[in-house]
Amino acid sequence: MASSPLDEKTVTALVADAVKAPSMHNAQPWRFRHLVDRRVLRLRADLERAMPRTDPDDRALHIGCGAALFNLRVSAAHAGFTPVTTLLPDPAEPALLAEVRLDEPAGDVRAAAEAAGLARLHPAIRRRHTSRHPFADKEIPEDLRNALRDAAAREGADLLFAGPWHADTLLDLVRDAESRDALDPAAREDLLRWTRLGADADVAVDGVPEYAFGPDKRGGRAPVRDFAGRRPVADRGSTDFEEVPQLAALSTRGDGPEAWLRAGQALQRVLLEATLADLATSLTSHALETPALRLLARDPASGTGDVQMVLRLGYGPRGPATPRRPVRDVLDTE
Prior knowledge:
The chain has 334 residues and is an alpha/beta fold. It has ten helices and 13 strands.
C-alpha cells in the first residue's frame, strides 16, 4: 500500500516518460496532477488541444491519453512501484480520464509479475518514434506477430494482421479519406494547425515538425499521411515506399471513452513491444476519422470489433524524435 509521499524528482521523471507517448498530430492532449497526500497521479484531457474537424468525438484524444497512461504505468513499475489504475474515476468529470495510485511493491505474486512485465518495456519508451520512411520488403515472423497480438490482448484489445483482402480495403479507405480532404480544404484545418515549418520547427514543443514529415512518397502503397500538402519543405526529397505494407488493425469490443482509453494502452504496449523487437512503426487514423469509413475498416471475415487504429509495421528507419512539451507545462501538484 502507499506510504510516504513521493519526491518531486521521481514524479517529474514518471511524467517525462508518460508524455513520450504518440498522439494525433503530436498535439499532446494531456495534463497530469500529483495528489501528494494520496500518492496519486491524475490524468486529464487537455480539451484546448482537441481537433474538432478530424476528431469531433475526441476518440483520438482519448487514445493518445491512453498511450500516455500506459507509459506512466511502465515508468512507475520500472521505478519500483505497483501502479493501480482506475479509468474514468468520476462520472461527473468526464475530462478526468484516469487515476494511478503508486503503491509500494506488494507481496502478491500476480501483481509482481505484472509489474515486471511492464518494467521490461521501459527502455523502449524513449526509443519509440513514428517512422514516415519506407520499410524493407521483409516479412514479420509469426512468433513476433503472436507476441504483438498478446500485448494487445493484455490490455483488452485485439490486434489483427490484415490479410491481402483486408489490407486492400484499408488502403482503399485511406485513399478515399485523402480524396475527401482534397475536395474539402477545411478538412485540413487541424493538420495545418499542428504542423511546424521552417524556423518554427526548430523551436517547436508540440505538433509535427517538418524534419519528421519523412520523404515525399513517389510510389508504393504504404499509407503515409502527407503533412506538407502543397507547402514546400526544404531538402525533403522523394522515394518509393513498400508495395505490400504490413498492416494491423487494433480494435476493441465496444466503443466509447473507456474503450478508447483501453485502446490507447493496448496501442502503446504493442508499439513498445515492437520497438524492443527492432520493428519500425507508424500509425494511420486517416480512414477512421470519418464514421462511414471507419465502419468499413473492420475485418471482412469476422465483421466484429470497433477499429481504433491501423498500424504499419516493418523493418526500416525509426524516424526522428518529435518534440515534447516540458513537464512543468503539463504537471500540477495539489
